[in-house]
Design goal:
Layout (H helix, E strand, L loop, with lengths): L1 E5 L3 E5 L9 E5 L10 H20 L4 E9 L2 E10 L5 H17 L36 H7 E4 L3 E5 L7 E7 L11 H18 L4 E8 L11 E7 L6 H13 L6 H14 L9 E2 L2
Amino acid sequence: MLTLFSTSTLTVGFPDRALQPRSIGVAATDKPSYCQWSEKDDAEAYILMRNAADLFAKSGTPQHLIIGRQSSARPFYWEVVPMATCSSLFGRVWQQAQVLYRTYFGGIPPIPPPFSVSDLNAHIPPLQQSDPPRETCPFCKPEVLNRQQILKGEHVSMLLDHRPVGDQHLLIVANSHIENFYGLSSDAFAEASKMTKIALRHFGTGHETCLMFKSGRDAGQTVPHWHEHIIISEKPTSSLWSRLKVLWNIVWGGTPIKPQTLQTRVTQLRIDFGDSSLDSPSPAS
């Protein structure tokens, strides 16, 4: 990563091989695994990424993807990826496919963003207000939560994705109807980070892992309710076929889990995470 500046715990810069030309990377020094990130690291990363998203929005690019990947050969870092507004479905799908292709096959040289990087360390912008639960939102529906919820916290909950795109696919979902990252509080992000690390430790930190959350249709957000994807590939995705398979599943969705299998897996994960220490969260009942 081409370093622009450092905070007390993090490094901010341009990824060597970016997913989009103006992407911003946020890394923790000498911490290759996300499970090694401290609460302070997460708190500073939240401020930097919120500011980056806000600055991209003020520059005319309000939609973005935030993604973090790690493997035995790749240290973890967050990348804030600006996504252009598209006038057609084809343009939207093509842009998303390009970014996801670069995620698994290598990025492109970066170029500076249309704002001063010193502004990334400014005060955090105000939050967008959350809305009341919506009947049409799947993450607001009690029947969906009862069926897929594994762990519930004060601000966010962990769900099993019913259409997994990897060997393990979990979701961290805001408990309130928050549309995207612009409305997610620092407390909610901190709790989401803790839940994410619980999941990574449970399945093993040596696997290839992809964390992502999207803001806007052009960034690939299909449900307007903030959620983070935790995609774990227990088998290496080094071969061309395995990479293409993961890429296909991310773009078009995985095969739905049969209801009985879904119930069995959720029940077992509730048991597995039953003694997880997360201050206030407890297993879903």
